[in-house]
Amino acid sequence: MEDVAGNPYLKGVYARSPSFDARASQRWFLAQIADFVERSNDSSTLLMDQDPAAEVRVYAHLMREDELLSRDAYVELLTTLAALESRLGSRQQRVTIYLDADEVTLRARMIARGDREVPTEAWLRRVRMSFAELSDRNRNSRLVRTEGRDVDSVVDDIADLTGLR
Hints:
Layout: H1 22-39, H2 52-65, H3 71-88, E1 96-100, H4 103-112, H5 121-137, E2 141-145, H6 151-162
Parallel strand pairs: 1-2
Helix pairs in contact: 1-2, 1-3, 2-3, 2-5, 4-5
């Protein structure tokens, strides 16, 4: 679902380019999630690769702290998030899994997949801390460490945590 390469507004985010439009970028991500949720079947299990709350409460919040996003734009994103969360609230059970790795591992993965722009380790540390705080506030969420692990062992952990095994 989350395709950063498909976001036409994301270019320049890490370089703090004047052409970067934080509001449009975050609106694009939320619209992708909303579209996915609308197309899903309410009676079946819904798996998403990005928590809509993370888009706003982690990424947009950090952009707000870095003065890349205005207060009004942040409030607009929070309002959009509330509507999306309301739609998701109709689901019977919600478990959120946040995948975590140290900053060096995250940067290496981004470089290995060919990302043209890669954030600093300091910025990735802020992202990780924000995800940990978000996870701590939600009793139905879990952080799963991924560095040094193969995909199958991470998937096994997620299946155990969600009861989808």
